[in-house]
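Task: sequence design from structure.
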């Protein structure tokens, strides 16, 4: 099993380059940074995590710029978005940013994506909440074409371009892994069709089957779709608890990501030490 850290990196926390060095020194495999360009002050959309939205949601760094700083300070640590709100981004520009980061980091990028929860935030970017998943699907398919084809073109309802030239291509072949966040009724359909793994948030399961049962169901659907091997599963915000980690390992989970809350430098380093004790 691999061990990662997910955190909202801001100007008041451990800076990304120092954080990357601290993670690498402790044996962590990956760093996961989220994305919010802003939070509309109206606060109409309820936060899935509770009644009070923490301030770091609107203070977080741009993930690609921050991860590039981490790349320059580390050698083996994987650099991941958790999650990137591609529905708020230009498809062609984001494909280039990812290819650039992957190549300059030596092929260490993991592309974690999701549909988002803040309707008014995405509306500020011209994206309708109800159609965000259809837009996300087209964006991922179009990015894959840009990353893998010499003269890609794409014609959809949300993404549309004729043949173009776009370089660099990612160092990882055929492209960096794309992991789908979320735990809704159609999540597995997206994972199986155009992603390379699933990453639900611990403690936020949708009603119904247990996480273990869901992993088993995903494997069945993955195989039925003709995908090779087994679908990688990464658990976001896993508790730093040895029994829970052992149970996830028994279920075949590939990676756990422990949450690093905002705080001063000493508090964050103590948290890293606590989580690092679970690394085998």
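Answer:
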């Amino acid at each position: 099993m691999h061990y990662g850290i997910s955190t909202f990196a801001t100007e008041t926390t451990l800076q990304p380059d120092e954080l990357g060095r601290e993670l690498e020194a402790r044996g962590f495999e990956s760093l996961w940074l989220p994305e919010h360009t802003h939070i509309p002050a109206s606060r109409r959309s309820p936060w899935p995590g509770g009644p009070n939205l923490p301030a770091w949601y609107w203070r977080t760094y741009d993930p690609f710029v921050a991860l590039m700083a981490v790349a320059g300070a580390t050698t083996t640590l994987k650099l991941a978005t958790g999650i990137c709100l591609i529905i708020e981004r230009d498809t062609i520009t984001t494909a280039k940013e990812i290819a650039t980061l992957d190549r300059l980091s030596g092929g260490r990028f993991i592309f974690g994506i999701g549909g988002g929860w803040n309707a008014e935030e995405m509306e500020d970017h011209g994206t309708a909440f109800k159609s965000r998943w259809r837009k996300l699907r087209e964006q991922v398919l179009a990015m894959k074409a840009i990353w893998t084809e010499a003269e890609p073109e794409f014609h959809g309802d949300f993404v549309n371009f004729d043949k173009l030239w776009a370089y660099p291509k990612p160092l990882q072949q055929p492209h960096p892994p794309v992991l789908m966040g979320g735990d809704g009724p159609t999540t597995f359909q997206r994972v199986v069709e155009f992603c390379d793994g699933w990453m639900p948030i611990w403690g936020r399961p949708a009603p119904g089957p247990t996480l273990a049962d869901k992993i088993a169901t995903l494997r069945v659907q993955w195989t039925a779709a003709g995908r090779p091997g087994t679908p990688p599963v990464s658990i976001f915000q896993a508790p730093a608890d040895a029994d829970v980690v052992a149970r996830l390992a028994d279920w075949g989970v590939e990676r756990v990501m422990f949450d690093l809350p905002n705080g001063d430098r000493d508090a964050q380093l103590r948290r890293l030490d606590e989580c690092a004790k679970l690394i085998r």
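Residues 170 and 242 are 36 Å apart (CA to CA).
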